[in-house]
Amino acid sequence: MLQSMTGFGSSRLDADQYTISVEIRSLNSKSMDLSVRLPRFLAEQEYEVRNLLTKSLVRGKVSICIDFSRNKAQRTQNSINKELLQAYYRELEEAADLVGAEKQDLFRLALQMPDVMQQEQAEDEAGDTVWSVVQPLVQEALESINTFRADEGKALTTEIMSYIDRIRILLAEIEKRDPVRMEHIRNRIKSHLTEISASESFDQNRFEQEMIYFMEKLDIAEEKVRLINHLHYFTETVYLPEPTGKKLGFISQEIGREINTIGSKANDAVIQRYVVEMKEELEKIKEQINNIL
User: Fold this and answer.
1) Where are the domains of the chain?
2) Pairing of strands 18-27, 7-14
3) In this predicted model, what pLDDT tens digit does every residue of 14-58 receive, in sequence order?
4) At how many degrees (to 10) do helices 269-289 and 245-266 cross?
5) Which residues are 11's β-sheet partners?
6) CATH domain 7-73+128-144 topology
7) Pair 275, 178: CB distance under 8 Å
8) Mind listing the pLDDT tens digit for each residue in 160-181?
């Protein structure tokens, strides 16, 4: 079954100490074009993240963003600069002795002096420890985006197969028209045969050879057979379990060649109109294939 290259998947964990969110987005691309945004302390895990995404998503313009943020209560922690506290306390004590002031509030005052109480940013947890939590979230986001891609692929399958069915219908109309076309060609040849045969330079053998060559050039039987075979192959490929976008692109090229050849050999206005409609359907198919994995 077809899968779209366009998709979005996300996961989130809200813990007491921190919040982790993972978002993965993908658009169509001829190859894997991957952009990774990680917290600094997960830099060592970037290679593993890239491997996970490449293996799971195969192809597309893919971006992943992993965000790690601590809850407000956990972001900072207080510490006391003990040496500075002692220095302030001694100075306050000396000043109190100098003026004969009470000393019972000296500790509180020293504690309130500049730079005694320090707020330090909590150190990031070790990358390996956090990665053990992040990795399942990445897997969850991958499952989410693959589900999105599969759902989009179902819609694309229905749309593309409607175009293929339309080409089959038009080919059937060409099949019905072909005997009429050939009869018209024969009648035109017969109408000129008397005039041609009356010429003194008329060569019967050469004429028959050229007529055989001419009729072969107008015959589209092989092209019709090859076209219906390509349509069958396209349909079989659509429902294969593995990614088939590139293969379908190649089959579409072969379908286009047969349609073009039928158009160039038909020499019939009605069939030419059918050929134009077939080309329109094929262009719709090619446009959708650009977004297929």
Assistant:
1) 7-73+128-144, 82-115, 150-289
2) antiparallel
3) 888 888 999 999 999 989 999 999 988 888 899 999 999 999 999
4) 170
5) 22
6) Ribosomal Protein S5; domain 2 (3.30.230)
7) no
8) 999 999 999 999 999 999 888 8
